[in-house]
Write a structure and sequence with these properties.
Blueprint lengths: L1 E10 L3 H12 L4 E5 L6 H5 L2 H19 L14 H25 L3 E4 L1 E6 L2 E5 L5 E11 L3 E3 L12 E3 L12 E5 L3 H12 L3 E5 L11 H13 L3 E3 L4 E6 L4 E5 L4 E4 L1 E4 L3 E3 L32 E3 L10 H15 L12 E3 L4 E6 L2 H6 L4 E7 L4 H4 L6 E8 L4 E9 L5 H8 L9
Parallel strand pairs: 1-2, 1-6, 2-3, 6-17, 8-15, 9-10, 9-15, 10-11
Antiparallel strand pairs: 4-5, 5-6, 7-16, 12-13, 13-14, 18-19, 19-22, 20-21, 21-22
Helix pairs in contact: 1-7, 3-4, 3-5
Length: 433
């Protein structure tokens, strides 16, 4: 068995792992990175951010064509099957894999393909697909194994009509009707995508509103737009059982309702990928959802072992994971480091949503005096030129001293609004007379 020595070993090639490995390599460290899957990129590239956003982009183009007055004279609306729309997403995935593989080669990072398991606090055993073993010894280790969809034991995910947010991308047909259980970010994004393809969607929410971490008005606006595109939203519901047969799926709710659709998508929660790491060999323990606890420096209870990205839970965003990987690396390199606990959020529904900071509800509960400014995109020339029908931006500021504390926007194109809001919240702002 071959033994290799490194300064830093990173487990996982998603955003957190990639940023940690490249940052360490650029500062002169000998680095290795381990990936379980045949290709690099992690969940973000193969099942999460990249394919779903590429898919969303194709659907938005179809929706724009079908609703644009300029094209109405051509004839009937154009509709595309789900597999055909996914073709472009797969091209994007292949491009991302090729690009990221070059990143590692260019930075002289050794890439190992296989399952990593702790032998002791400084040693990892790598088992490849041919069952061959290699041993990596490192001074510092970063766990960035990401997460996967949570699968309740009472749902048969082997059934060909029952999916979760990873397997839905392998859908080989376009269902006429779809039930989505879970109205978090992933559930709402897929509700937008499938309704844009003309699918009748039932969105089941186990809470009393959509995305309750947003301002109520933005949450209500999202509900309005989903319903406008034919999505039926059911709040405060819990599943009792899910039964699939040859022609469809029946969902029984605890309220007594029985729903029927061509396909079912479970989009409620995620589990950290820690079950194959052999954490028991080093005295680490994950929580019930497979997530690792870290301090403000992304250190686990073992000082030289760090964790970043979805494997530590909130906020489970690719952009945040990338920053966490950078910050974890800065810490292990003893470089200047600043912990950021407020992260801008981008939600790629149709229309998309961007937010940063505390909601009005949170400010009220904290008894913080504030004022709200609101602007509607329909009142701007920028919105009129591409015929954006709706959208708004809201920001709240504390009164003494005048400081921006939060910003939320909902519109067809937001680009970098939440990042700009994050910067503005770090400085005082003068109230408009």
């Amino acid at each position: 068995m071959a033994v290799h020595n490194y300064d830093v070993v990173v487990i996982g090639t998603g955003p957190a792992g990639e940023s940690a490995a490249i940052n360490a390599a650029k500062h002169g460290k000998r680095v290795a990175i381990v990936e379980k899957q045949p290709a690099v990129g992690g969940n973000c590239t193969h099942w999460g951010t990249i394919p779903s956003k590429a898919l969303r982009h194709q659907v938005k183009q179809i929706m724009a064509f079908n609703t644009n007055r300029m094209f109405r004279d051509i004839g009937e609306p154009r509709w595309f099957s789900f597999p055909r729309v996914m073709e472009r997403s797969r091209i994007t995935i292949d491009q991302q894999v090729e690009m990221r593989t070059r990143f590692y080669a260019r930075n002289r990072i050794d890439l190992f393909s296989g399952v990593a398991r702790f032998k002791d606090e400084h040693t990892l055993l790598i088992r490849d697909r041919q069952e061959a073993l290699e041993e990596l010894v490192a001074q510092k280790i970063v766990i960035a194994t990401g997460s996967r969809p949570y699968r309740p034991a009472d749902i048969n995910f082997r059934h060909p009509r029952i999916y979760e947010s990873d397997t839905i991308l392998s859908l080989s047909h376009t269902p006429r009707t779809l039930i989505i259980f879970g109205a978090g970010v992933i559930g709402c994004e897929y509700a937008s995508i499938f309704s844009g393809l003309g699918v009748k969607v039932d969105l089941i929410n186990n809470r009393d509103s959509l995305l309750s971490f947003l301002d109520d008005e933005i949450s209500d606006a999202l509900s309005y737009h989903l319903r406008k595109h034919g999505v039926l939203i059911r709040h405060n519901e819990e599943h009792e059982r899910v039964e699939g047969d040859e022609s469809g799926v029946t969902v029984y709710l605890k309220s007594g309702k029985k729903l029927r659709a061509d396909a079912f998508l479970w989009a409620n929660g995620r589990t950290g990928n820690t079950d194959e790491l052999g954490l028991e060999n080093i005295g680490l323990e994950a929580n019930g959802r497979g997530q690792l606890q870290v301090d403000d420096h992304y250190r686990t209870s073992i000082p030289h072992i760090y964790a970043a990205g979805d494997v530590i839970g909130w906020p489970s965003l690719a952009s945040a994971a990338y920053d966490q990987g950078l910050n974890a690396c800065d810490e292990l390199l003893d470089r200047d480091y600043r912990y950021v606990n407020e992260v801008p959020t981008g939600i790629y529904t149709i229309p998309e949503i961007s937010s940063f900071g505390r909601t009005e509800r949170e400010l009220t509960e904290a008894r913080v005096p504030y004022e709200v400014a609101q602007a509607f995109f329909k009142d701007t020339a920028r919105a009129r030129s591409p015929a954006i029908p709706s959208g708004c931006s809201r920001s709240s500021s504390t009164r003494t001293p005048w400081r921006s504390t939060a910003s939320t926007a909902s519109a067809t194109r937001l680009r970098k609004s939440s990042t700009s809001a994050r910067r503005s919240c770090s400085r005082r702002v003068k109230p408009t007379p």
